[in-house]
Amino acid sequence: MRSHFIGAILAVVAVLAFSPGLLAQTGQPSGVTGNKTSGPGGHPADLSGVWGRYMGINDRTFTQDKTPAMTPWGEERFKAATAGVIDGRLSRRDEADLMLTQCAPAGFPRILMLGDRPFEIIQFPGRVLMLFEWDHWVRQIWMDGRKHPEDPDPTWMGHSIGWWEGDTLVVDTVGFNDKTWLDQAAHPHSDQLHLVERWRRVDQEILDLQITFDDPIAYPKPWAGKRLFGLKPNWEIQEEVYCEFRGILNSPEYLPFVP
Question: Is the pLDDT of residue 41 over 60?
Fold first, then answer.
């Protein structure tokens, strides 16, 4: 049983959850394809809850196919990051992984791949939040019809806008920095990364993510991946500060703690 309430934010959520106004907006920004529709019964689907790794799956990438074709820029970064592979894991001494060596954020979407660390989806009017246990990161998905900024400041999580297509939450994200990886296998990306995610609740217990990666600096063409998550009804998001582990980064005992 997981413990630790997340404080005041859940108190607010509890009030809003039973408010008749809790209907995420379905406005779709111009210039983005897709039908502006709502979910079954005329309402957006309910994706709320705590979600984690599904059925023990511990994939390190979003695709089971061969490594996606890369540009020379992408290949150079990928080779530099994977030069010290040990037993299928990246070398703990590899300075290319800023998350390990400098306590940098995991970034999105890599934060979805970090072992058993769950995340919670919270739906507000005009906004969807993803609350991650890993370093207690919060991702905002704007559902109020706004567009991306014309020149977004590069960030670890990017700028996300979303809308509903039937029972599927479509999320469009740009504005990343180039300091993170896409996954645990060190697939690189540039600050030109553009993500399109499609989140759909397959049933009460399973959440399906289909994701498209478009980054002309790192990859010659867009490529797709997927991920399943399982509902964790008895879990609560804990406070976890990754840098508390930093003191054992170079010790032999560290490897088992790496997601």
Answer: no
Q: What angle do CA 26, 28, 30 make, to 5 degrees?
A: 160
- Termini Cα distance of the chain: 20
Give the position of tokens 């511990």: 58
pLDDT digits (tens, 9 = 90+) for 222-240: 999 999 999 999 998 888 7
d(CA 208, CA 67): 22
Q: What is the DSSP track for 226-257?
A: EEEEEE-TT--PPPB-GGGGGGGTTSTTSGGG
- Residue 94 phi, psi dihedral angles, 5° rounding: -75, 110
DSSP H or E segment with residue 165? strand 159-165
**Residue whose C-alpha is closest to residue 147's, from 167, 124, 175:** 175
What distance in Å separates the CA atoms of residue 207 and residue 51, rounded to the nearest whole number?
8
Rounded Cα gap, residues 45 and 234, in angstroms: 21
* Angle subtended at Cα 90 by Cα 84 and Cα 94, rounded to the nearest 5 degrees: 60
Q: Which two tokens stand for residue 57?
A: 């799956």
> Angle CA(83)–CA(87)–CA(93) in degrees, nearest 5?
45
On the 0-12 / 13-18 / 19+ scale of CB atoms within 10 A, 199 is: buried
Q: Give the whole-angstrom CA distance, residue 211 versus residue 218.
A: 17
Task: Return the residue matching tokens 């109020």.
Answer: 144
With 70 as the cut, is the pLDDT of residue 197 above it? yes
